[in-house]
Amino acid sequence: MKILIAVDQGLYSDHAVIEGARIAKNTWANVTILGVKSSFQEADRADETDALIRYSKDYRQLFLKFFKEDFCPYPEHADGYELIEKTPGVFVDSPVLETAQKELKTVVRTGNPVKEIFAEANEGDYDLIIIGCSGTNECVWENDPLIPQRIVNDASCSVLVAKDITNVKKIICCLDHNQVSQESIEMINQLVTFHDAELEIVGIAEGDSLKDKVENKIKSILKYYTAKHIATPEIEVVSASAFESFISARQETAMLALWMEKKSFLAKIFSKTQVTKLIKESHSSVMILR
């Protein structure tokens, strides 16, 4: 598994790093912490870039704190650790130590934040992008609400929007009854495990005639979670016409995870505009699975 954690100098980026560390601790994923910043006026470029590099190093140390009491598969560089400008505006840290079992890389890019995040994501072929954003009733990143929105809606891989670091009591996972990837099912397993949260699996039916079919599919997914020794999840089937109101009623009390692969049924009935509204208004983190 490969995780890309996108950060800037906002406090909400702590949330992204912490969620990334929690997942990585369970999965031993290869991880890149990507610091991004809009292009600067030429006179300020060096100072601003240096500041972002310092912040990115601090985020790396925050990530590693989660492994202090356990074996750490990631490299902990000696005093010589530094970021080197690989190409104009792109800084990459020192080579991975041969003794490291997993990769923890730090990259800094300057330019359009959305383009730079996607450039790194495409080059690295990541399974998950994690991005923080400011709190309830808004989702702003670098004072621009369009950044998290575009990452969520346009990424080709799964995206976790980390809105806070409070304890998650319940995760509601809305799945497609026709198709869902094994990787996404396992991702939910990881979220439930490290949050020690209850799980509710929700299927979406186009009408009453399909309710039994959807429920049977969800029950087959339930067997997977039971085998993983997760406390028996709740199961619910919601009609497509009632899905938006269902989400609205639960976004204040639970973390929501939605299977939104391009051809999924859920992607057809829950538009990008509705996803944007969800990540803006949700009190907790939101996972978009692909």
The beta-strand count equals 12
Share in helix: 25-40%
Number of domains: 2
Instruction: Return the CATH class of the largest domain.
Output: Alpha Beta
Instruction: Give the rounded overall mean pLDDT.
Output: 83
Tell me which CATH architecture of the largest domain applies here: 3-Layer(aba) Sandwich
Kindly report the CATH topology of the largest domain: Rossmann fold
* Biggest sheet architecture: 12 strands, mixed
Global outline: globular
Euclidean distance between termini CA atoms = 14 Å
Strand content: 15-25%
- Going by helix content, strand content and strand pairing, the class is alpha/beta
Return residue spans where pLDDT drops below 50 for at least 5 consecutive residues.
none
Q: Rounded to an integer, what's the Rg over CA atoms?
A: 19 Å
Task: Name the strands of the widest sheet in spatial order.
Answer: 3-4-5-2-1-6-7-12-11-8-9-10
List the secondary-structure elements in sequence, H or E: EHEHEEEHEHEEHEHEHEHHE
The number of distinct helices, counting runs of at least 4 residues, comes to: 9
The CATH superfamily name of the largest domain is HUPs
Describe this structure in words.
By secondary structure, the protein is of the alpha/beta class. It folds into two domains: 161 residues, HUPs (Rossmann fold); 120 residues, 3-Layer(aba) Sandwich (Rossmann fold). It is built from nine helices and twelve strands. A twelve-stranded mixed beta sheet has the order 3-4-5-2-1-6-7-12-11-8-9-10, sandwiched between helices. Helix 1 packs across helix 2 and helix 3 packs parallel to helix 4. The chain is globular. The two termini are 14 Å apart. The relative contact order is 0.14.
